[in-house]
Design a protein that fits this description.
The complex is a heterodimer of chains A (about 200) and B (about 375). Chain A is of the alpha/beta class. Chain A has helices at about 5-15, 20-35, 35-50, 90-95, 125, 145-160, 180-190, and strands spanning about 55, 60-65, 75-85, 100-105, 135-140, 165. Helix content of chain A is about 40%, strand content about 10%. In chain A, the strands form two sheets. A four-stranded parallel β-sheet of chain A has the order 4-3-5-6, with helices on one face. In chain A, helix 1 packs across helix 2. The radius of gyration of chain A is 21 Å and the shape is globular. The relative contact order of chain A is 0.08. Chain B is α/β, with parallel strands linked by helices and about 375 residues long. Chain B has a domain at about 135-280: Glutathione S-transferase Yfyf (Class Pi), Chain A, domain 2 (Up-down Bundle). Chain B has ten helices and 15 strands. In chain B, helix 4 (about 135-150) crosses helix 6 (about 175-220). The radius of gyration of chain B is 22 Å and the shape is globular. The two termini of chain B are about 25 Å apart. Classes of the chains: A alpha/beta (about 200), B alpha/beta (about 375). The interface of A and B includes residues 151 and 180 of A.
Amino acid sequence: MANDPFSRLVAELSRLPGIGPKTATRLAQHVAKAERSGAEALAAAIVEVKDKLRPCSTCYSLTEVDPCSICSDPERDHSLICVVEQPFNIQPLERTGEYRGLYHVLMGVLSPQHGVGPEQLKIAALMDRLEGVKEVILATNPDVEGEATALYLGRLLKARTIPVSRLAFGMPVGGDIEYTDEVTLARSLVGRRNV
Amino acid sequence: MIGLRSDSSSSLLQSLTIQDFRCLEGLSWSPGPGQHVLVGSNGVGKTSVLEAVYFLATTKSFRTASLADCLRWRQREFWVRGQLVGERGAELLASWKTGGTARQLNGKSATFGEYLGRVSALSWSAKDDRLIDGDPASRRRLLDQGVFAKKPLEVGLLTRYRRVLTAKRRLLSKAGNAAVDSLESWNELLAEAGHALVRLRAEHVAELGAAFDQVLRESGIEARPVEFRYRPNPEKGVESVESFRRELALAGERELAQKRALVGPHLDRLEIRWGGADIARSASAGERKLFGLVLTAARRRVLLAAGREPILLLDDLDAALDQDRLESVWRLFESAPQVLMTSADPGTGGRIRGVSRWHMHGSGIEPL
């Protein structure tokens, strides 16, 4: 592979998730054509993320100050913990404005294929946070790894007599029953609510 | 098919273009609905045309489990585009390159369920004895083809089951204390997906057996009785998720000791008995052929009952069939709105009444 600056940038961008060689080349062309100030701002923002963000020592979300603004907010409900897979799963839940409790980031999910077992996740740290907690909401993804992780955590938490709930999964808003598979429909029925 | 006219909202193939598929560099053909036979010399690519239609409809091949085998020499990608007519007319495009298959519906990328919901295809080949001689895995594959052709939206269930099984196998291969710790969670998911899968398979085998008997009865073809016996694993897994779970729990220690997943539909068996004995041992060459053709007609009947009309793809239908047998077998398919056949015999088409004949040669396909 060529070792000129443009090829190096393409190679680095290609390592990002979801970016293939074609997209990496397009992005690199954009950077090459951009004003110097734009390129510098991008580089500085990347370095700043690495310099300033660290995992919160309580919930493992990414934060500039430890503990993070959510863990240290006295207005939030400290008896509720929502468990998510990754730090970036917190923002979508926050944007809903429906949740006022705390979070806990597992930093992954159970995945034997990738050598990830319970000991590789922040599960022990979650178990250490349960004093005074009235409910744990499991918000892992509805894929097989997320489901297995939720089942595993559910069992551990119930053994500690902590009420556990799972995010409802089912038909998407705007979906059509005719084009919904049976597993999704069954889950929609289990997760139905009164109107 | 005898006594059975289609009233489903079928989509049929108006035209197709094939690019870099097996020996076909670039080929366009507009057969339209109806019955067609492709005639041409051996090796010209007639079966590949049927295989390409099957790939377009299902994104799979009926000749190989590895789509890399379908790539033309020194090419990187093959694709098939087809224009469908009928109530659910659309343009489909299926392509393959290293890394996977891509699907487009009317120019936009489509989910597996959306795509498969538009069209279905059934294939039969004189050379294909996988269902008769094949190992249990081949029979399970053919069973699933039937299940998911009928219910394409459920195809995610099979993917889900396989992912859970892979995770469980990996966990068992380590089999330390930590593995045991989370095994229960994977078993829970395995029971849920496994129960749904064996239920669908059991339902399909029952429908297939009934349809097979009906086709035989109506056709007047004389044959020894055929029985399909589905052996789910675990046997009681069809009853409920709870029963499935219990069987998994019972096998738990053996699984850990052997480091293998010993319970689940990945070990299901489909027994086919012909005249009271296993078909692989009891059927003659002629009976095997007859079985395959009646089964294809039965599979079409099951699909029709689910409101889906398949494109029928019959490879070398006339090979080794005398005129009388060919006529009685053809009655199984003559009412199907679209049949694409191949033959090396230039007289075929003459031997089957009401069929459009096409000549395939090195540079294309022309009406005869």
